[in-house]
Design a protein that fits this description.
The chain is 38% helix and 29% strand. By secondary structure, the chain is of the alpha/beta class. It has a single domain (2-245), classed as TIM Barrel (Alpha-Beta Barrel). The chain has an eight-stranded parallel beta barrel, surrounded by seven helices. α1 packs parallel to α3 and α7 packs parallel to α8 (183-193).
């Protein structure tokens, strides 16, 4: 199992949220490209970046454009970067790939515009990661501000059939809370979607959580707040995942 450190961008700064609530944002760095360089130097194979400004204010003329920051992150890291947030069109995808990101993450579109997801998967084979963000098993969209009745497993299966390079599964109730991932739900999804890889996200608080995620069949795990709060280091997480996966 791989470990992907996370950077959430809000107003150009690296922040972390609790359960996706904007008002809970805590700023950790005003130079997220330096954070990215540190993650890369520690041996991370990929960095997970979410543009929260784009996710929260997709249709707003006052939206902050983080593309320059994203480009600096890609250049500073020198490793694979996956990014998403407010991606709603093939042009949005193309702009992100032009910045040098390796993978583009789609979320809301999986529920609201499945034809677009299929088109993106066909245009960039293996380059599209689809986020399935669930609250009590049902998918939430629009930066987690809008609940739906769409079942997380059904959406995962649909995007896997459409050619998604991976499915990023987040239990919203666990995200940023350091209460441990939803191991059972992650295992069920990974089992149903195989061979499409599942990336686990949300709630990792301790190295023991990595141990418990490995049997779920997750391809990788996104880790955020635990790193920023010093629960463990990137090096420790990578070593633990490597050791337990052998």
């Amino acid at each position: 199992m791989l470990v992907f450190p996370a950077i959430d961008l809000l107003g150009g700064a690296a922040v972390r949220l609790e359960q996706g609530r904007r008002e809970s944002a805590k700023i950790y760095s005003r130079a997220p490209w330096e954070v990215a360089a540190g993650f890369a130097a520690a041996g991370a194979p990929r960095i997970h970046v979410v543009d929260l400004d784009a996710a929260f204010t997709r249709a707003s003329a006052a939206r902050i454009d983080n593309h320059a920051t994203l480009k600096r992150i890609v250049e500073a890291a020198g490793i694979d970067v996956e990014t998403g947030g407010g991606v709603r069109s093939l042009d949005d995808c193309a702009r992100l790939f032009d910045l040098g990101v390796k993978y583009v993450i789609l979320g809301t579109a999986a529920v609201k515009d499945p034809a677009f997801v299929a088109s993106a998967c066909a245009r960039w084979p293996g380059g599209i990661v689809v986020a399935v963000d669930a609250r009590e098993g049902k998918v939430a969209v629009e930066g987690w501000t809008e609940d739906t009745q769409a079942d997380a497993t059904d959406i995962g299966l649909a995007v896997a059939r459409a050619g998604a390079g991976a499915v990023l599964y987040t239990d919203i109730g666990r995200d940023g809370m350091r209460s441990g991932p939803n191991f059972d739900a992650t295992a069920r999804l990974a089992g149903r979607l195989r061979p499409c890889p599942v990336i686990a996200s949300g709630g990792v608080a301790r190295l023991d959580d990595l141990d418990a995620l490995i049997p779920t069949g997750s391809f990788a795990v996104v880790v955020g707040k635990a790193l920023y709060e010093g629960a463990f280091s990137v090096e420790e997480a990578l070593a633990r995942a490597r050791q337990r996966s052998q």
